[in-house]
Amino acid sequence: MSNMLLYKKIAFLNYSEFKQSTFTRLDDFSFASATGSIPLMGIEFVEAAKEFPIVFFKNEEGEYIPAVLLGVEEDRNHIVSPEGEWQAFFVPAYLHRYPFLSMVGENEDSLKICIDETYPGLDAEKGEPLFQEDGTPGPVLSEAMKLMQAYHFQMEHTTDFCRRLAEHDLLEPKELTAQLVVQGEPTSYKVSGVHIINEKKLLALDQEKVMDYFRKGEMAWIYCHLISLNNLSRVIDSFPAEN
Q1: Contact of 83 with 69, CB cutoff 8 Å
Q2: Is residue 3 part of a domain?
Q3: What DSSP letter does each residue of 60-103 carry, written as one string?
Q4: What single-letter DSSP state applies at residue 193?
Q5: Can you give the pLDDT at residue 108?
Q6: Burial class (CB in 10 A: 0-12, 13-18, 19+), 41
Q7: Residue 182: helix, strand or coil by DSSP?
Q8: The pTM is what?
């Protein structure tokens, strides 16, 4: 899974190039209709587990990334309606931050705020200016910067969590299956390429490592993940491919 998922044309937001640009937040999730999963922060596991399966993907760098499954296909989902409506209560922060994106600066202590230039709400006629006349960020951009900082902080914690899961050999590849009756016929659905936490290995972990997960509030994340795997049938049944 790529960290640039959903982003098509990323540009660094600077005053010289975007001083005339305006922005309008659109209530349209069509940009997320062509993906079967969305990256997730650890603190989102509790709410996400109420509706979606939470799994782990391994990216090209060999790092594990948690994500919610929106369907059984890589390039489409059943959560975004043809009209662009998000048909669930929980909305991942990854989607809330879109079309904005943060990247670590050269000194690794600062974040550069970027935007997907293909977003339809950019340069909207009645939008709010991204920058004020003196070159400082406008209200919309200031709010986006705060969101990016919080997101970056939480994702650092999540990345560290996933790194320790891998170090403790707790993640294993798994093919998820769901059996449903479609138009009166029993139908089997499968999702491959995902990883889940091996609970037997978790229970065999030494006390010091287990307590580390507890102290960091991550044991709740682990069991939310395990419980959430039962949601695969719900996702498929509630949002069938025919819709």
Answers
A1: no
A2: no
A3: TTS-EEEEEE--SBTTB-SSB-TT--B-SS---HHHHHTTEEEE
A4: E
A5: 57
A6: buried
A7: strand
A8: 0.89
State percent of the chain over pLDDT 90: 74
Alpha helix ranges (H) inside the chain: 15-18, 45-48, 93-97, 139-167, 199-203, 207-215, 219-228, 232-238
Which pair of tokens denotes residue 137? 């960020």
Encoding tokens for residue 177?
Answer: 């299956």
Tokens of 116: 């997907």
* Contact (Cβ atoms closer than 8 angstroms) between residue 177 and residue 192: no
pLDDT tens digits, one per residue of 63-79: 999 999 998 878 888 89
Average pLDDT score over the chain: 90
Q: For residue 119, what is the DSSP state?
A: -
**Angstrom distance (rounded) from CA 181 to CA 44:** 31
The amino acid at 195: H
Band of residue 226 on the pLDDT scale cut at 50, 70, 90:
very high
| Terminal alpha carbon distance of the chain | 25
Residue 141 included in any domain: yes
| Domain total in the chain | 1
pLDDT of residue 236: 74
- How many other C-beta atoms can be found within 10 angstroms of the C-beta atom of residue 56? 24
Q: Which helix (H) or strand (E) holds 116?
A: strand 111-116
Count of CB atoms within 10 A of residue 228's CB? 22
243 lies in some domain: no
Q: With respect to residue 5, please indicate whether it lies within any of the assigned structural domains.
A: no
* pLDDT, average across residues 159-179: 93
| pLDDT band of 241, cuts 50, 70, 90 | very low
Structural domain span for residue 205: 10-238
